[in-house]
Write a structure and sequence with these properties.
globular, single chain, 72% helix, binds zinc ion, mainly alpha
């Protein structure tokens, strides 16, 4: 099951929940993404030689509430760049676009209204984070033998 390893989540389950709750679960899901990044930092920061994934989740929430559009773009930038930079040091690990690319892609897509590409990158974000968290979990089980 995808919930067994810290930080792994089922993207399709959350998309389904997001649709039937008219978007409320999309907001919850994004908050969980930031909390997962912070948790990843707290859990592994001292064990890995990689850039921090600390996203300051609650600061991101405040940004989105008080400066909706610009704050949302900053939060999107942080969400992608934190994980991108973190994974970049692991050679061969699948990765996502960096923060600036995803902001540019989102701005372009909002003009073209082709949200499907954005859903793809959101899926990809969760997918590579799941893989990375499972990798950590495997490392930990091997380490305790
Ligand atoms: Zn890591």
């Amino acid at each position: 099951m995808s919930q067994n390893v810290q930080g792994t989540r089922s993207y399709f389950l959350w998309v389904f929940l997001g649709i039937i709750t008219l978007g409320i679960c999309f907001i919850v899901y994004n908050l969980l993404n930031f909390l997962d990044l912070d948790e990843h930092h707290n859990r592994y920061a001292t064990k890995e030689n990689a850039p921090s994934t600390n996203s300051q989740a609650w600061l991101m929430v405040l940004l989105c509430i008080f400066v909706p559009v610009v704050g949302g773009l900053i939060a999107l930038y942080i969400k992608y760049s934190k994980l991108h930079d973190h994974l970049a040091v692991y050679q061969g690990a699948p990765n996502i676009p960096d923060g600036l690319s995803i902001v540019l892609i989102s701005l372009l897509l909002s003009l073209l209204s082709a949200g499907i590409v954005f859903f793809y990158f959101e899926w990809k974000w969760q997918h590579v984070f799941n893989e990375h968290n499972r990798w950590h979990a495997r490392q930990e089980t091997q380490g305790t033998r």
